[in-house]
Amino acid sequence: MKITIQEAPKHVNEEVTIGGWLANKRSSGKIAFLQLRDGTGFMQGVVVKSDVSEEVFSDAKNLTQETSLYVTGKIVEDTRSDFGYEMQVSHLEVIHEATDYPITPKNHGTEFLMDHRHLWLRSKKQHAVMKIRNEIIRATYEFFNTNGFVKVDPPILTGSSAEGTTELFHTKYFDEEAYLSQSGQLYMEAAAMALGKVFSFGPTFRAEKSKTRRHLIEFWMIEPEMAFMDHEDSLQVQENYVSFIVQSVLANCNLELKILERDTSKLEKITAPFPRISYDDAVEFLKEKGFDDIEWGEDFGAPHETAIAESYDKPVFITNYPKDIKAFYMKPDPERSDVVLCADLIAPEGYGEIIGGSQRIDDLELMERRYEEHGLTGPAYAWYLELRKYGSVPHSGFGLGLERTVAWLSGVEHVRETIPFPRLLNRLYP
């Protein structure tokens, strides 16, 4: 019977065959320990000289790293391993012998590993990060489908920008100017007017020349948009969603979190509701903490966000930013025209902003004034204005950056490890 490593717990004391690769091995004169992987997980295979033919034992001792093979044997419990099971090998068949595999068990520099990202993905920790990423995606679909949202796919090639043209990748679209999308939000607003509650999940692109551990050139965003929902309604959706994906990772990625040595006690505290602090109060707090450089009206940088987050053991909303540093479509606070109904959600442990959201302007006259202030003319923006002309309603939405969220939940230092093939300022390979 051919099974996967993931299925091994269902076949204790049965003889099975697993197709996989040799991740590592060690051997003595009488026993060879094979560290096997097959894409679904990692498991040890034990080859005892006295229990197998001379040919099998010789093959086991001479296996090279990343050689592909079929391994046959009996699944038994192994309380010493995180996985809890191992195979007592009786037979093996080499499919393809790998020679001179470049990523050895010794330590390698980050640039070397990034140059070999197509192979580095095979390692135990990178495998664990990708499994956590997959669980967040799975839980995202479950959360929004369960709560009445419809999945909508906005275009990647667009004729306009969502928040400004300075960080866009420009391209030609036949005889027209076009950009790679930096957000699907404007299109999701149109979808919400048709379908009520919608969400998108897809790649976005920012031509931002940043080298920080929080930035990628190409990254994935989850962007819900909701008709008939105000800013407060949206904040509740955000905290419930984040709580749901955190608890899903805890429930379904226990082994992966162990492999990454993640302190899960910190994640267990992540349940709604989340604390909130206004931008006004955040500025005062930062000044008290010695950040004399920050003034009202300036955006927060990574050190500022980290300092604020350190005062909480849950993600914290920073609300009501100044109008002049936020996007043109954000609705002003009815009680204060100099700030808008928006919030950034800052993750704990120094991982920074994972969500940005706001209530959108629904008044046609106000949006027309915004267009004039920002010089938004031509057909690329005309359709967006029409959303306020034909049956406008209060509506809100937000965007969650997948890679920053994966980094936070898995506990890795840099977002380049949270996407299969990262695109960085100086990296377009592999």
UniProtKB/TrEMBL annotation:
Top enzyme category: ligase
UniProt catalytic activity: tRNA(Asn) + L-asparagine + ATP = L-asparaginyl-tRNA(Asn) + AMP + diphosphate + H(+)
Predominant place of localization: cytoplasm
Alphabetical UniProt keywords: Aminoacyl-tRNA synthetase, ATP-binding, Cytoplasm, Ligase, Nucleotide-binding, Protein biosynthesis
Gene Ontology terms: biological process: asparaginyl-tRNA aminoacylation
Ligase recorded as keyword: yes
Domain Aminoacyl-transfer RNA synthetases class-II family profile: residue ranges: 130-430
GO molecular function: asparagine-tRNA ligase activity; ATP binding; catalytic activity, acting on a protein; nucleic acid binding; transferase activity
Lineage top rank: taxon: Bacteria
Compartments, record wording: Cytoplasm
Annotated Gene3D superfamilies: Bira Bifunctional Protein, Domain 2, Nucleic acid-binding proteins
E.C. numbers: 6.1.1.22
GO cellular-component term (any): cytoplasm
PROSITE patterns: AA_TRNA_LIGASE_II
Family: Belongs to the class-II aminoacyl-tRNA synthetase family.
Self-association state and partner proteins as the record states: Homodimer.
Name of this protein: Asparagine--tRNA ligase
Organism listed in the record: Oceanobacillus oncorhynchi
Taxonomic path: Bacteria, Bacillati, Bacillota, Bacilli, Bacillales
Gene from which this protein is expressed: asnS
